[in-house]
């Protein structure tokens, strides 16, 4: 494939931006319909992100539509898309997507463009989009090969799916359970970066194979991993884990992946901010920071509904009690009638923009955030408006990323 895009291709792809704005979601839905006819390709995807029979288009088709539009709009300035490309590559590695899968997506994408746009999708337009697709695909394939090689060559690492046994289950709250996992082969495991996730392949009776990502909620130890999973309403995988998985259950697990993680060297103040089950990567980061015995302050700020939904509170408080540099602040949005301020929680209500700006070191701190999209949108906006530069605001959200080929 070409190492650079031709001027003609760039011009033709950019000329399709208005059509993508008008019909992009229809193109994406048609593309997925074509790909899902192939069971091998269908099983690569997280179908919880692809909508429901009632007509909901799902978050992933909308995210992919935005990603394709962003690619077309920035095709002459792809450096602007570098963070998104890394996120996509990491997700692909988690899902074990390989070079041989890419031609199927190319065929489905170009077929969908032709189907939806009709005569407007001229041979020249289709050729330009074919070149543009493979230009990006080659970048992703090369990056993914590097990640696979590093996983395979690092102590405790592996490629593909490895069997892990549930060693212990801990009920953390009314909606969250932790699952302690150890490899069936008894060998060491790859030391993950705090903030990364594991991808699981579930064979649930009565359903096709499904894949899900869960953040690792413990610091690296080389022995095993902990995931802390919220039971989602109508969640197939999370419901099965909560209701059917037991000590001794064996799960298929891909190596740790993800571009959201705590840097190895972080000398300044750190603020960890989470909402709900977004605490999972934050707890891993907190454990790591505590093990470093750092002198610079670490603030952990968490918001949840009430005492019953507040997971891992005692564990987090015990970490802070042993490290003077670590402080913890809890917000309960709707405290129960018998909750005691100062004991069960620190503040009633939500984490407000004003509180966040006033009580954290916006001049010097690095911020790591995880939680629902509305929570992140509000927090990132507040920090940005307060003058925190974008390179000091790091965040992870639950749900589909803006990806060109992923679950």
Order of helices and strands: HHHHHHHEEEEEHEEHEHEEHEHE
Tell me the distance between the termini. Answer: 25 Å
| Number of contiguous helices | 12
Strand order of the largest sheet: 4-3-6-1-2-5
Q: How many domains, in number, for the residues?
A: 3
Could you say what the CATH topology of the largest domain is called?
Globin-like
**Beta strand %:** 15-25%
**What structural category do the secondary elements indicate?**
alpha/beta
Query: Considering the protein shown, what is the CATH homologous superfamily of the largest domain?
Result: Globins
Low-confidence spans: 51-57, 400-407
Please name the CATH architecture of the largest domain: Orthogonal Bundle
The amount of helix comes to 25-40%
| Total number of beta strands | 12
Rounded to an integer in angstroms, the radius of gyration calculated over CA atoms is 22 Å
Indicate the overall shape.
globular
- Major sheet characteristics: 6 strands, antiparallel
Descriptive overview:
The structure is a single chain. This protein has helices at residues 7-15, 17-35, 39-42, 59-73, 82-95, 102-117, 123-153, 236-243, 279-291, 313-322, 353-359, 373-385, and strands at 162-171, 176-183, 197-202, 210-215, 225-230, 250-253, 270-275, 298-304, 326-332, 347-348, 366-371, 393-397. With 407 residues, the chain is an alpha/beta fold. It folds into three domains: 7-153, Globin-like, CATH 1.10.490; 162-253, Beta Barrel (Elongation Factor Tu (Ef-tu), domain 3), CATH 2.40.30; 270-397, Rossmann fold, CATH 3.40.50.80. Strands 4-3-6-1-2-5 form a six-stranded antiparallel sheet, covered by helices on one side. The chain has a six-stranded parallel sheet with strand order 10-9-8-7-11-12, with helices on both faces. The radius of gyration is 22 Å and the shape is globular. Residues 51-57 and 400-407 have low confidence and may be disordered.
